[in-house]
Design goal:
binds nicotinamide-adenine-dinucleotide, about 350 residues, dTDP-glucose 4,6-dehydratase, Rossmann fold, two-stranded parallel ribbon, 13 strands, NAD, dTDP-glucose 4,6-dehydratase activity, NAD(P)-bd_dom, NAD(P)-bd_dom_sf
Length: about 350
C-alpha cells in the first residue's frame, strides 16, 4: 500500500456540500495546497469555505469544468498532482424536471476535464505520472435499486434517474481514460451524505429547514424508501485516505452501516427539534409531515459493500447516525444566516 499524500490538489466542486467539507478538512489536516475550481451554481457557496478562505495553502477560482483551457492553466500554474472531481449537478428531482444541465456538467464537463488533465499528465516526468491521481467521486445510485440482503459491488450499473445515469456515464469515461490512455484514477461510491452546509433541497436539510419555517415536510410515497446515511466528515476522511493510499485504478465504497427508512429519519428529526426548539403552539413538528406522490423511478434502497475500503484504506464510518443527526440539526439552528438566504430565493429552490 502506498501512503503518499498529494502536495497540490485541484478540487472541482469544492464550494459544494461534500467538496467544502473535504477542503476544510484537507487544508487543516495536511501540509498540502488546495485549489478549488467551482462554477458556483445555486449549490455552490463561498460561505462554506469561509473558514479557510485566507489560508495560505488555499486558492479559489470560479470556473466551469467544461472550460478545458482555463483548467489547463490552473493545472500547470499550480503543478497539480491530484484532482478530486466532485463538481456535478446532484439533485435527483431537478434531474427529472430538467436533465440537460446534468448531461452538460456530469458527462460533457467530465469529458472536457479529463481531456485537460490527460494533456497535462502526459507532460509530467515518469515519477510524477506514476504518483498522479484523478479521483472521481461517484454515488451508490449508479448501481440502481438493491435487493434486501444484497451487497452491491462495482460492475453492475443500472442507474434509474437522469442524475444517476449521468454520474454512471461520467464514471465510464473516467475508467476508459484509465484503460485506454493510462491516466491514473480512483473511483469511489458513497451512500447518501448528510451534515452541516448541505443545500436545503436534500431530504435532511429540507426537513429541518421546512420544519423551522413551519412549512409542510414532504415525504415521498409511504416513506418506506431506505437510505444509508453517511456523515459528510466520514466521506471527506475517506476521500483523503483514498488519495494517499488508494491503488491506481482502485474502486472504493464509502457506505454507512445501517439503512433507515425515510419516514423514520424524518420522524427522528422532528423528535430532536421538538426537544431542541419546541414549536410555539405546543404541537410536534410531526404534524407538518405530508406524504406526496412518489418520485418516478424511485429506488427503494442501495447497499454498498465497504469491505475493500476497510481493508485497503483503513476506513470505516466513525460518526453514529443519531449523534451526527443531532449535531447537524444543531448546526442548522445555529446557522440560519447560511441557509435562510437560500430559502428566500425561490428561483434557486423550485421544489422546496
Ligand atoms: N450528496 C450526496 O449524498 C452524494 C453521495 C454520493 C456521491 N455524491 C457526489 O459527490 C459530489 C458532490 O456532491 P454534493 O452533494 O457536494 O453536491 P453539491 O450539489 O452540494 O455541490 C456541487 C458543486 O459543484 C459545482 N458545480 C456544478 N456544476 C459545475 C461545473 N460545470 N463546473 C464547476 N463546478 C460546478 C457547484 O457550484 C457546487 O459547488 C457529486 O459528484 C455527487 O454526485 C454526492
Amino acid at each position: 500500500m502506498r501512503d503518499l499524500e498529494p502536495r497540490r490538489v485541484l478540487v472541482t466542486g469544492g464550494a459544494g456540500f461534500i467538496g467544502s467539507a473535504f477542503c476544510r478538512r484537507f487544508v487543516s489536516s495536511s501540509q498540502s495546497r488546495v485549489v478549488v475550481a467551482d462554477k458556483l451554481t445555486y449549490a455552490g457557496n463561498l460561505l462554506s469555505l469561509a473558514s479557510i478562505s485566507s489560508h495560505p495553502r488555499y486558492r479559489f477560482e470560479r470556473m466551469d469544468i467544461a472550460e478545458a483551457d482555463a483548467i489547463a492553466v490552473i493545472l500547470r500554474e499550480e503543478a497539480i498532482d491530484a484532482v478530486v472531481h466532485l463538481a456535478a449537478e446532484t439533485h435527483v428531482d431537478r434531474s427529472i424536471a430538467a436533465p440537460a444541465e446534468f448531461i452538460e456538467t456530469n458527462i460533457v464537463g467530465t469529458f472536457r476535464l479529463l481531456q485537460a488533465v490527460l494533456a497535462y499528465w502526459r507532460e509530467l516526468g515518469q515519477t510524477a505520472r506514476d504518483a498522479f491521481r484523478f479521483h472521481y467521486v461517484s454515488t451508490d445510485e449508479v448501481f440502481g435499486e438493491a435487493g434486501r440482503d444484497e451487497k452491491q459491488v462495482s460492475g453492475n450499473y443500472f442507474p434509474s434517474s437522469p442524475y444517476s445515469a449521468s454520474k454512471a456515464a461520467g464514471e465510464h469515461l473516467v475508467r476508459a481514460w484509465h484503460r485506454t490512455y493510462g491516466l491514473p484514477i480512483i473511483v469511489s461510491h458513497a451512500s447518501n451524505n448528510y451534515g452541516p452546509y448541505q443545500y436545503p433541497d436534500k431530504l435532511i436539510p429540507l426537513t429541518i429547514t421546512n420544519a423551522l419555517q413551519g412549512r409542510s415536510i414532504p415525504v415521498y410515497g409511504d416513506g418506506r424508501n431506505e437510505r444509508s446515511w453517511l456523515h459528510v466528515d466520514d466521506h471527506a476522511r475517506g476521500l483523503q485516505l483514498a488519495l494517499a493510499r488508494g491503488r491506481n485504478g482502485g474502486t472504493y465504497h464509502f457506505g454507512a452501516a445501517m439503512a433507515q427508512a425515510n419516514i423514520v429519519v424524518v420522524r427522528a428529526i422532528c423528535a430532536v427539534l421538538d426537544r431542541m426548539n419546541p414549536r410555539g403552539n405546543g404541537r410536534s413538528y410531526e404534524d407538518l409531515i405530508t406524504f406526496v406522490p412518489d418520485r418516478p423511478g424511485h429506488d427503494l434502497r442501495y447497499r454498498l459493500d465497504p469491505r475493500r475500503s476497510e481493508e485497503e484504506l483503513g476506513w470505516s464510518p466513525a460518526v453514529p447516525f443519531a449523534e451526527g443527526l443531532e449535531e447537524t440539526i444543531f448546526w442548522f439552528l445555529e446557522n440560519k444566516s447560511w441557509w435562510l438566504p437560500l430559502r428566500a430565493d425561490t428561483r434557486t429552490c423550485p421544489i422546496c
